[in-house]
Amino acid sequence: MELDQLDRRILAELQENADLANTALAERVGLSPSACLRRVARLKSSGVIRRIVALIDQAHLDRRLSAIVTVKFERHGPEFRRDFIKLARSEPAVSQCYMVSGDMSCVLVLHVVDMDEYTELADRFFHGDSNVAAFTTHFVLSTMKLENPPAI
After folding, report:
1. Using the 8-state DSSP alphabet, how is residue 150 labeled?
2. Domain holding 20: CATH number?
3. Residues 82 and 128 occupy one common structural domain
4. How confident is the prediction along the chain (152 residues), in pLDDT tens digits per residue?
């Protein structure tokens, strides 16, 4: 789908505050409310807007221990990663999972309650998968920035 400047302005406004009423959003981007509503619906139906969520500060919830884990796979074909990806997609503690280039194969962002939950997860994900050659865990000490990438 080709995005024009109005689409990008709508996306930028929604990234800043997805709770905006359609009339306020329309006013900010210079459209009529009906035209704005049609554009947002088109952005959703085309998959540009995958879903609308709230960014929550994990420090206010039970999952206060965050970790970034780099994983190196033994073999790299899709058939070797399939079970790992399925597990990552279904695990509530995994908020992000990326296949990456370079020395590592995969990067995960985890949010767990405590070290016991992390250890149990590590046993299932990393020690329990014969395709995981190595992994390194970096525990987050503090978050300086947590935002979506810019739409404009």
Report:
1. P
2. 1.10.10.10
3. yes
4. 899 999 999 999 999 899 999 999 999 999 999 999 999 999 999 999 998 888 777 777 888 899 999 999 999 888 888 889 999 999 999 999 999 999 999 999 999 999 999 999 999 999 989 999 999 999 999 888 888 777 76
The alpha carbon of residue 136 and the mean position of all alpha carbons in its chain are separated, in whole angstroms, by 20
Name the strands in the sheet holding 106-112, side by side, starting at the edge strand that comes first in the sequence: 94-99, 106-112, 65-73, 132-139
Query: Which own/partner contact pairs does 138-146 have at CB distance under 8 Å and 24+ positions apart?
Result: 138/67, 138/68, 138/69, 138/70, 139/65, 139/66, 139/67, 140/66, 140/67, 140/68, 143/66, 146/55
Which amino acid is it at 39? R
Note whether residue 70 is domain-resident. yes
Asked if residues 42 and 72 have their Cβ atoms less than 8 Å apart, the reply is: no
Is residue 36 in some structural domain? yes
Q: What is the amino acid identity at position 117? A: E
Tokens 């709770």 locate to 19
Instruction: Determine the structural domain holding residue 13 and report its residue range.
Output: 5-45
What per-residue confidence (pLDDT) applies to 152? 66
pTM of the complete model beyond 0.85: no
